[in-house]
Design a protein that fits this description.
about 100 residues; alpha+beta; two-stranded antiparallel sheet; 4 helices; 2 strands; about 40% helix; flat; disordered N terminus
Length: about 100
């Protein structure tokens, strides 16, 4: 059984859970990279709140370092006042 298939079962008595879109994309991206961290948000109209979810695979330390570097860059841009001026929902956040 593959790692993905193993992760679909929580114990022998429960039905297998279906992989969600985040799991599927994580698995696919891991074929090309050493670590993957996907963060997503979605508005829940029932509670009128924002729901947060994430998936991560691979080197946890590399992912943590990437998040720290991104946060530092975001903080720098915000303090300089350029972040929201340059922001466009279609922009790639990882381009230099």
């Amino acid at each position: 059984m593959s790692e993905l298939e193993d992760s679909l079962f929580t114990d022998d008595k429960q039905e297998p859970k279906k992989p969600d879109v985040l799991d599927q994309h994580c698995q696919h991206i891991m074929e090309h990279y050493d670590s993957v961290l996907i963060l997503v948000t979605k508005h829940d109209p029932k509670t009128n709140e924002t729901v947060f979810d994430w998936r991560g695979r691979g080197n946890r330390f590399a992912s943590a370092g990437a998040v720290e570097a991104w946060m530092a860059k975001d903080d720098e841009n915000t303090r300089m006042g350029s972040f929201f001026e340059e922001w466009d929902e279609g922009d790639d956040l990882f381009e230099e």
